[in-house]
Amino acid sequence: MQARSLLLVTAAFAVAAGSAAAQAPNIRVAGRVQAHFRAASGDSSGSFNPNAVNSTFEIRRLRIQTEVRFGDNMLLVIQPSFEMASLRMRDAFLRVGLTPQIGVTIGQEKSPFQRYELNTSNNLLSIERGLRVLGLSGREGLNDLLAANGYASHDLGAFVDYAAPANKFTAKVGMSNGSRESAADVNNAKSFFGRATATVMTNAEDQPELQVGASFASRDRAICIVCNATTSTFYPDSSKATTAFGLDFEWGGFRPGFHVIGDFATGDNARLRFANGRNTGNLVSSSDTNIVKFMGVSLVGAYRIMTQGADTRVVKMIEPALRLDYLDPNTNLDDDQGILITPVLNVYFGNTVVMRAGLDLYSYKTAAGTQSAREFKVSWQANF
């Protein structure tokens, strides 16, 4: 009897120890740094100031990401950002897999909208997702408009995701504050998002060749009682919401050969937005005249070429790329569109060490006619 009891106790301890080991955290730390040089010029207009600082060096991104896995179905992600002495919290979420296909995430992450936004900044073929030209203000690319309206980029919320075997089909739905990155909610309304993707074609190695996706966003709009950059107050119960819809595709991948990422989006654009810190896209009033319809298209294509030679060769890959971005911020008005064309040459010294050199060529309409601005960019970056 004593031997049997000892055996049972030993077995219980073994099971408990195995379970504890399975739940022990497995920690992975990654990071990135991107140093940029920028030089801009353009036509003098109400949007471009030729007397502004037109060249600078900057640390565009400096981020450390920690991924902590507990067993096989729990993931904690923390990613602070330190660029240019500005401390920010980007990702901060916990995902628990309820089944092999279904998971629940709570915390701060990107809203599931726009394929190029959801692509990591480690691999931005065009250096930037949106429009960044020194001295240029009041103008946007498609990604800028989506982020400023609260449809894309980071927010605090809860989401449920589903992934079919081999990720042939995925879906994600949920709600968030609507106040965006690291900002507490200022009203009782919430924003709702949904996204679905499918792999339509695979290559001979069973890698995705053609993927398509669709996204929907309903972003609640906080309405100011008093609009002030530091002491704003808002109506606690706001029924004002705007919506956007997006379609996207991706051909190829981050591997040798052709790679194209395309996004189309349309919906409501709040022209008179008010920002309180990182709480962006609030409305000065509930007047519908502040809301117009937008439409935009973004295409980014590249062709990756592996160089030949010894493993010690300096350049491992060369990747010419081209970005085309068209945005009509108000479809009811003529001559307010903007077109951004960005040719880029990406030179890889290793899989994660790359130099990107590109030229943003931006053309926009004003009452005086067609104006232009341009900026030459060089990005040196390394990821680990």
Short summary:
By secondary structure, the protein is mostly beta strands. The chain contains three helices and 20 strands. Strands 1-2-3-4-5-6-7-8-9-12-13-16-17-18-19-20 form a 16-stranded antiparallel β-barrel.
Which CATH first-tier class would you pick?
Mainly Beta
Strand order of the largest sheet: 1-2-3-4-5-6-7-8-9-12-13-16-17-18-19-20
How many angstroms does the end-to-end distance come to? 57 Å
Mean pLDDT: 91
> What pattern of helices and strands is seen along the backbone?
HEEEEEHHEEEEEEEEEEEEEEE
How many domains, as an integer?
Answer: 1
What's the total count of β strands? Answer: 20
CATH architecture: Beta Barrel
Broad shape: globular
| Low confidence ranges | 5-21
**Describe the biggest sheet?**
16 strands, antiparallel, barrel
Structural class: mainly beta
Question: Helical residue percent?
Answer: under 10%
The CATH topology comes to Porin
